[in-house]
Structure formats: structure tokens, C-alpha cells
Automatic annotation (TrEMBL):
<feature type="domain" description="HTH iclR-type">
    <location>
        <begin position="25"/>
        <end position="87"/>
    </location>
</feature>
<protein>
    <recommendedName>
        <fullName>Glycerol operon regulatory protein</fullName>
    </recommendedName>
</protein>
<keyword id="KW-0238">DNA-binding</keyword>
<keyword id="KW-0805">Transcription regulation</keyword>
<dbReference type="GO" id="GO:0003700">
    <property type="term" value="F:DNA-binding transcription factor activity"/>
</dbReference>
<dbReference type="InterPro" id="IPR050707">
    <property type="entry name" value="HTH_MetabolicPath_Reg"/>
</dbReference>
<keyword id="KW-0804">Transcription</keyword>
<dbReference type="GO" id="GO:0003677">
    <property type="term" value="F:DNA binding"/>
</dbReference>
<keyword id="KW-0319">Glycerol metabolism</keyword>
<dbReference type="InterPro" id="IPR036388">
    <property type="entry name" value="WH-like_DNA-bd_sf"/>
</dbReference>
<keyword id="KW-0010">Activator</keyword>
<dbReference type="GO" id="GO:0006071">
    <property type="term" value="P:glycerol metabolic process"/>
</dbReference>
<dbReference type="InterPro" id="IPR005471">
    <property type="entry name" value="Tscrpt_reg_IclR_N"/>
</dbReference>
<dbReference type="InterPro" id="IPR011991">
    <property type="entry name" value="ArsR-like_HTH"/>
</dbReference>
<feature type="domain" description="IclR-ED">
    <location>
        <begin position="88"/>
        <end position="252"/>
    </location>
</feature>
<dbReference type="InterPro" id="IPR014757">
    <property type="entry name" value="Tscrpt_reg_IclR_C"/>
</dbReference>
<dbReference type="Pfam" id="PF09339">
    <property type="entry name" value="HTH_IclR"/>
</dbReference>
Length: 268
């Protein structure tokens, strides 16, 4: 006798065979592949390029893209004949970011850092595939600003970001990275001078998840004398305090060997 479909607690009827097979909806997977391609290509893409990149027949890609345009997920530029991310995604993205607990808890600390230094302060998240994405920011108060747009992506080997996340991962570092890893762990934050671009200095600290792993990096960007070793020494106690507070308030776990914050020095 065939088994009747069951109703879950959310009121949705599920077929047990489908549940067991973990059936996925191909159209949703294709949509995600299209969006992922457009995220990686700021100049957008043609139907042909999207079909090739996403492994779709051109007719399938055309129908899918037409539907995505009608729903506001992507938009079409008739001058260039290229597609790009649509306005609806901005609304989705803002809603997602504001509902992310670590970011919500980090914002007051980001605002204080930006006010105190007049530098741009960003929240950057490690992504499942290993790269990093800027998901929130407080703009620089400087006349000449160094900034990064929300949604900007960074490679998995980006100097500051990779060092901060790797420092608390349970991995054995290469011999030449061991000293740098220990320095980051002992200070509780990381700094790079001129490695992203000449004169661009960046510092950042991690926020930890429930497993004690970095789930967010809060960073400051400064050009030359806007962010000096002396500035970093003065900010150090606050960075450690902020890392601990944001982690605890967002339900994370501070690693046992993460440093305690000392008394803050005057920022001058």
C-alpha cells in the first residue's frame, strides 16, 4: 500500500520519498549560478557568456534570464546588451546584513572606530568557498577617502584577511608563516602595511562564532600617515575589547588564548 504524504509542523505537505532523496529544484540552482557569475563580473555578461559559464543551453539561459529580469533579480542594459545584478538584490542584501547578529552587534564599535580615527571601517565576512565579501561599512570622514564598496570580494589569500582567519583555525601553518600566525594570535588583531597597494595600511580584528572560529573581520583602512604604528598601539586595547564584546553579544565563543584587553591609552 502506498504511503500517504505527511504534513510537517509548518503545515506543508511533504512526500516522504522526496524527503529521503533530498530532491533539489534545478531552476533554483541555475538561478544561483547566474547570480554568482554576475557577482564575479562587475561589467555584467551577455546571454551567451552566462549560458557558457553556467553550463546551460542558450535557450534555457535566455528563458531563465528573462524571468529573472521580470522579477527584478537582474537587469538588462540595452546599450551594452549585457545583464547585471538587479535592484531587488539591494533590498534583499540590506535585509540579510541587518539581520546578521555579529554585524548588528559590531556596528556601534565600527561607528566609534570611524569617529575616533576618521577612517573607513568595514565588516568583512569569510564565505563558504573561501573568499571574503565586504558586507557593511562606516564611511571615512577624511576629505581624501579610501573606501571599499559593500559587496566587494577579496581572494582567499588576501593578506590581512587570510592571516586573521587562519590564525585561529586548527591547521598547521607553513614554517615561514608560523611566527606571523603567533604574532596575530598574541596581539588579537592583524596589521599590514602597503601589501594591498603602496601606502595603503590596513588593520583588523576577528569576531568569533560559537565554535571559536573567525566569522567576521572588522577592519580600518588608512593611507600613509593616516594609520601609523603609533596609531595602532593606541587603538590596540580597544580592538581587543571590541572583539571580545561583539563575540559575546552575538553568541560566539572567545578562544581561551585570545588576549585580555589592557587599559586604553589616549588617542591624542
Amino acid at each position: 500500500m502506498a504511503k500517504e504524504p505527511s504534513e510537517s509542523g509548518d503545515g506543508v505537505v511533504h512526500d516522504d520519498a522526496e524527503q529521503a532523496a533530498e530532491v533539489l529544484v534545478p531552476a533554483v540552482s541555475r538561478t544561483v549560478r547566474v547570480l554568482d557569475h554576475l557577482v564575479r563580473h562587475v561589467d555584467g555578461a551577455t546571454v551567451t557568456e552566462l549560458a557558457k559559464s553556467c553550463g546551460l543551453a542558450k535557450s534555457t539561459a535566455s528563458n531563465l534570464i528573462r524571468t529573472m529580469v521580470s522579477e527584478g533579480l537582474i537587469e538588462y542594459d540595452s546599450d551594452t546588451r549585457r545583464y547585471n545584478l538587479g535592484p531587488l538584490l539591494v533590498e534583499y542584501g540590506v535585509a540579510a546584513v541587518t539581520r546578521t547578529t555579529p554585524v548588528a552587534e559590531a556596528r556601534p564599535f565600527m561607528e566609534r572606530l570611524a569617529e575616533r580615527t576618521e577612517l573607513a571601517c568595514l565588516a568583512i565576512s569569510p564565505m563558504p568557498d573561501g573568499h571574503f565579501t565586504a558586507i557593511a561599512k562606516i564611511e571615512s570622514r577624511k576629505d581624501i577617502k579610501i573606501t571599499i564598496e559593500i559587496g566587494s570580494r577579496f581572494d582567499r589569500d588576501a593578506p590581512l584577511l587570510s592571516r586573521l582567519t587562519d590564525a585561529w583555525h586548527d591547521v598547521v601553518p607553513a614554517a615561514d608563516d608560523d611566527a606571523r600566525r603567533e604574532e596575530v594570535r598574541s596581539r588579537g588583531f592583524g596589521v599590514v602595511f602597503g601589501e594591498y597597494a603602496p601606502e595603503l595600511n590596513v588593520m583588523g580584528f576577528p569576531v568569533f562564532d560559537r565554535d571559536g572560529q573567525p566569522c567576521l573581520v572588522i577592519s580600518l583602512l588608512g593611507m600613509g600617515t593616516d594609520l601609523t604604528p603609533q596609531d595602532i598601539d593606541e587603538l590596540a586595547p580597544y580592538l581587543v575589547t571590541a572583539a571580545r564584546a561583539i563575540t559575546v553579544r552575538s553568541g560566539g565563543r572567545v578562544p581561551a588564548d585570545y588576549p585580555e584587553a589592557g587599559p586604553e591609552r589616549s588617542a591624542g
